[in-house]
Fold each of these.
Amino acid sequence: MKKIMVTGALGQIGSELITKLRAEYGAENVLATDIRRIESDVTEAGPFEILDVTDAKKMHQLATDFGADTMMHMAALLSATAEENPVFAWNLNMGGLMNALEVSRELDMQFFTPSSIGAFGPSTPKQNTPQDTLQRPTTMYGVNKVSGELLCDYYFERFGLDTRGVRFPGLISNVAKPGGGTTDYAVEIYYKALEEGKYTSYIAEGTYMDMMYMPDALQAIVDLMEADPKKLIHRNAFNVTAMSFEPSQIAASIQKVMPNFEIAYQVDPVRQAIADSWPDAIDPTAAKDEWGFKTTYDLDKMTVDMLEKLKIKLAVN
Ligand code: AKB
């Protein structure tokens, strides 16, 4: 039985990953950690500890006391926030990752951390972006993600640590809101559709980015961690995606359910520049071939599910 320690457990991915892992492996086998405590299922339905990931000593202590054999390191600043404070982003994203890798090496744990489409840059092929290609990102977040991919590969090659990772696209979810990402518009739009019937997008019409619904993202993490290591040619990190769309297409998908929904545009130059530097659509073939990556939600199916779930959460008709 796995004993899994998760950092950043109250973040957008962590909040739902914890529930999924506790259902798969047993609540007592999943230790959720985060820098803050916000009462929720994450903190109440299983073990929870406060952890600042820059505190290597406490991370080591918690992992040892829990008897963890798997580390899922999710704590990180997203792209737009990292751009606002690059030095802090470097210290948190790289310092936290280094600590998590070292603790995992010392305790011989299996290791997962997400990379991102942000690991690509303007010189990367924009269409059908290959698994192995040019990675010269122009954002601090991207620099962190490429460095992280290299560092995780280094720990695998040098120390034999079982490191695995994916390059997540924008993740769309209805539990915890993302904070400080470039793709966040694709979550906000559903909230605003239900709350106000309209949305003003900070990303320009015609800007394509890869996206995926959270249930598919969580399944991808579990499937990759369970994959036969002999079949993995790559490790850090696999391209994964479910769909690529631009703002008017997600608006059109919402209009199929809410015909009066309206979209307008007021472009934020910082987040637009980040989006422009990322691929339009990445190629997940390596993930499919090496560990059977698959998705179940396309744009319209996701829209129906998002609106149904958010209606209940926001108590709107
Ligand atoms: C962001 O927009 O920063 C993230 C990501 C694609 O890594 N959602």
Amino acid sequence: MTDEMGWTPLREQVAQCQRCHLHQGRRQAVFGVGDEQARWLFVGEAPGAEEDQRGEPFVGAAGQLLDQMLRSLGLKRGEDVYIANVVKCRPPQNRTPTDEECAACLPYLTRQIALIQPAVIVAMGRVAARALLKTDGTLGALRLQQHHFGDIPLVVTWHPAYLLRTPADKAKAWEDLCRARRLMVSRCTPHDGNDGTAAA
Ligand code: URA
């Protein structure tokens, strides 16, 4: 992969990727979905069974919660929002991807970020946070810190699948999303009149 690679060759390379053994069990690689010029980038872990079948990230139960989270921010999947995973192929039995699998796949996400140039990145869950920040802190600690990926502000929050299991933490996730929205507002150019959230 080169630093100049555009969307079409990148997509093709991901579709044919054999950098790790996860390609053996996939129905298809799940590239990512949304607005290629989005200001919001949401990053998850790896596709599950439904995502592997449909070829789109976050289409199962966790995806429904993510869609609700987007709506709470006045956002909508595909409109000024891009959604991608660190790992593009489904791990067997939906296990957590290994550090090696994340490292093998990360250059694809890095290239997607370079092409999108989002204003804010939201890393959902420990796998996304650790892969993007190259740190092994706990999620509880990471979500309270300020981060950047290159020069792009990055907010760490709980993964929607975790929130489905632990609804008591939804309030904290909302605080994280509000922090992300404030960062978005502060990064918006004054002349475009758009604060990165849809009108109520
Ligand atoms: N969980 C993820 O991290 N990504 C998906 O695409 C679906 C569930």
